[in-house]
Amino acid sequence: MVSSQQQKTPLGNKVFHTTKMHQNQKTNSINDRCHNHNCFSLIEDPLWKSVCIEMTDLMGPSPIQKMWDSKLGVFCSESKSINLCCPTDETAQFVNQYSFLILGSLQRYFPAIKTLKTKVEYAN
Asked: Per the domain annotation, does 28 fall within a domain?
């Protein structure tokens, strides 16, 4: 049986219930996050590390597991684009699906950026 606790909010008399199951899910999320910080330490490029951390903050731990080993290329001011070299087709598909979030993060550093181009570079 799952036990619950009642807690009052700082705004007044509202009461909500938290269960041990919910608390365990929070603990698991924290453990996943700690594991992901090990992935962050493997990212050499500080800009890409910053993007990956922001993606994790926005979407949870799964993005970092899919894209941490990709490599940012050079920003091209003529085409207003940046290349991202991905190790697998699956990673490139994931990056393309969420390119708007990655671009949003990169626009802090490159305000003119409009496009993220993915390229798959298989390991030899």
From this structure: yes
Residue 28 structural domain: 15-120
CATH number at residue 44: 3.30.300.180
Number of structural domains the chain divides into: 1
Task: Output the pLDDT for position 66.
Answer: 84
> For residue 71, what is the enclosing H or E element?
strand 71-76
pLDDT tens digits, one per residue of 52-106: 889 888 888 877 788 888 999 989 989 999 999 999 999 999 999 999 999 999 9
Q: What is the pLDDT of residue 37?
A: 55
Q: Judge whether 78 lies within some domain.
A: yes
- Tokens 């570079």 identify what position? 121
- Mutual angle of helices 89-97 and 99-106, in 10-degree steps: 70
Q: How far apart are CA 72 and CA 92, in angstroms?
A: 12
